[in-house]
UniProtKB/TrEMBL annotation:
It comes from Solanum pennellii. Residues 72-314 form the PPM-type phosphatase domain. Pfam families: SpoIIE. The keyword Magnesium applies. Its cofactor is Mn(2+); Mg(2+). PROSITE patterns: PPM_2 (PS51746). Belongs to the PP2C family. It catalyses: O-phospho-L-seryl-[protein] + H2O = L-seryl-[protein] + phosphate; O-phospho-L-threonyl-[protein] + H2O = L-threonyl-[protein] + phosphate. This is Protein phosphatase. Gene3D superfamilies: PPM-type phosphatase domain. Keywords: Hydrolase, Magnesium, Manganese, Metal-binding, Protein phosphatase. The keyword Manganese applies. SMART domains: PP2C_SIG (SM00331), PP2Cc (SM00332).
Length: 317
């Protein structure tokens, strides 16, 4: 079966404003304002995003009263040596599964690109989903099996967080390792948000082949009932370290107000752009500022990082 792997998205710019995401480790900020992508090139579209195919519930084999429709937006931080960044994601609407992974940046000090690990992990997760679900309904997908198989087949060096979500029988299922995560927003309010798993500040649980890395058995297994109209926001820490819950609620509400004409990738773009603005801002009080101070580290403003956002709308069938 030909499998359509969603490639990591390139940096997207939507207007004339310069993208000045700076290369370097999470805690390093350099002042060389080079655009992250050459948006003046006419060959490059203003932005690129993952626009899902039409989903037919009969093809999907959905067993509940709802279906998930998702779109994503990715803004990698500038690093000419690693233009794809370290985040990876996939959207597999036919099987009603979405996932993100965030390669751990610290490996760069050893000359290892963790983005290669996270991308292979997500590719293998999607392959495992297709392999596991030759059957007709989405209920049959076991996310722990998917994570275990993806992990065991991923051989690259490095390590990565992972958060994989599926919808079946009107329940959102998830397995989560590390500090990527998701929020369920209902009538404008976050009614569920996944917890961060970390061993210390800015050091998330992470899957990898080194003996010091975590294994899939540390994954938190989550089930959240959902209803039509819910909005799921799945992202890496580049989102959640830069955007407070109340800000996320505000952006989602603004988008959902016009949601008949709205599509999930547009909302994902709005959220990612907002996160980027905060990431670049050295004055704003972000979740990362708060957590830094709690850890006794002086840090003001946002956190420069790859930003991945997947928005999933829960639609009625
Ligand atoms: Mn990150």
């Amino acid at each position: 079966m030909a499998i359509d792997i969603v490639p990591p998205k390139r940096c997207r710019v939507t207007d004339e404003s310069e993208v000045d995401v700076i290369a370097g480790d999470d805690d390093e900020r350099q002042e060389g304002l080079t655009p992250a992508c050459d948006f003046m090139d006419e060959d490059i579209k203003p932005y690129e995003t993952f626009i899902p195919e039409e989903v037919d519930s009969r093809d999907v084999g959905v067993t509940g009263k709802t279906i998930m429709v998702a779109g994503s937006f990715y803004i990698p931080k500038l690093n000419p040596a690693k233009p794809l960044g370290e985040d990876a994601s996939f959207i597999c609407l036919n099987k009603q599964v979405i996932g993100v992974a965030d390669g751990v940046g610290g490996w760069a000090k050893k000359g290892i690109d963790s983005g290669m690990y996270s991308r292979e992990l997500m590719k293998n997760a999607e392959l495992a989903i297709h392999k596991q679900s030759n059957s007709t309904t989405t209920t049959s997908i076991d996310l722990m099996k998917v994570l275990n198989e993806a992990f065991s087949k991923t051989k690259k060096e490095g390590s990565s967080t992972a958060c994989i979500l599926s919808l079946s029988d009107d329940t959102l299922h998830a397995v989560n390792v590390g500090d990527s995560g998701f929020a369920v927003i209902r009538e404008g309010i976050i009614v569920y948000k996944s917890k961060v798993q970390q061993s210390r500040f800015n050091c998330p649980f992470q899957l990898g082949n080194e003996s010091t890395s975590d294994k899939p058995n540390v994954a938190e297994k989550i089930s959240v009932p959902v209803i039509a109209g819910d909005v799921i926001v799945l992202g890496t820490d580049g989102l959640f370290d830069n955007v407070h819950d109340f800000e996320l609620e505000t952006i989602v509400n603004a988008g959902v107000d016009s949601w008949e004409s709205d599509v999930p990738e547009t909302l994902a773009w709005r959220i990612a752009q907002y996160a980027l603005d905060n990431a670049k801002n050295t004055e704003v009080y972000t979740p990362f500022t708060r957590e830094s101070h709690k850890a006794g580290i002086e840090h003001n403003g946002g956190k420069i990082d790859d930003i991945t956002v997947i928005v999933a709308y829960i639609w009625p069938l």
